[in-house]
Each structure stands twice: as structure tokens, then as C-alpha cells.
Amino acid sequence: MFSLNDSLRYYLCAGSCDLRKGFDRLSGVVRGEMGRDPLSGEVFIFVNKPCTSIKLLHWERGGLVIYHKRLERGRFSLPALDKATQSFHLGWTDLVMMIEGISLEKIRYKKRFENIKKKR
After folding, report:
1. Total number of domains in the chain
2. Given pLDDT bands bounded at 50, 70 and 90, which one contains residue 110?
3. Is 2 among the domain residues?
4. Stretch 62-88: mean pLDDT, rounded?
5. Contact of 59 with 38, CB cutoff 8 Å
6. Domain that holds residue 114
């Protein structure tokens, strides 16, 4: 079942990726280049060089799932690299906006109450 939501963690692979890769090779990228576990339940995001296609790799109960979207027109707008960690960490809202074509560069988030106990 489709189970992407705001309770998951989303990680964008730095650099472009050959999106002809399937489950096993994308899992290898997650382990080798991102230093994470593809079976962790986190969602890993891969974008091709022209930023016209995106794949999400996610472990759900029973197996891996790949979500794939190809744009017929336009490009995905990618977030800025976090220089401290040399990685991209996206929230659910950021991912949805990126897929819907909203630029992530000039977005400002207002302060909101956040339940610290809910965070892991």
C-alpha cells in the first residue's frame, strides 16, 4: 500500500543518479554513497542529471517500493545542500512542493509549535 507521509524521514541523494537503476542498485547507492540502510523505513530520493525524473525508494512491510515520476515539461527544483552534514534532509512538505513544481529556494518557514516528545 502507498504509505508516504509526514512521519517518515526523507533523504535526497547528492548529485544526479542514473534512474535506469532498479531496487538492488539503488539500495547499493543508499549504502555506499549515502551511508544509510535502505531497509530502515526511511525514504531515499534520486533525481536524474537534467532534473526531469525522480525516484523514491522506500522499505515497506514485506519489501521495497519504488515511486517514479517523469516530467513532460519543466524541471524539479532541488533544495540547497546542508554544508554542515554534506547531505539533503527533506521534510514531507518539502518533498510534496518539489514534486508539485514549487521552488524550494526562497521559502521561509514560520515558527510553529512542535511536540518534542513526538520526535525520535
Report:
1. 1
2. low
3. no
4. 83
5. yes
6. 10-118
Which pairs with CB-CB distance under 8 Å and at least 24 residues apart come from 59-67? 60/1, 60/3, 64/23, 64/27, 64/38, 64/39, 66/22, 66/23, 66/26, 67/4
- C-alpha–C-alpha distance, residues 5 and 81, integer Å: 23
Query: Rounded to whole angstroms, how far apart are CA atoms 111 and 114?
Result: 9
Phi and psi, residue 13, nearest 5°: -70, 130
72 located within any domain: yes
* Alpha helix stretches (DSSP H) within the chain: 23-32, 92-100
- Residue 57 pairs in a beta bridge with 44, 66
Cell of 102: 514549487
pTM, whole model, 2 decimals? 0.81
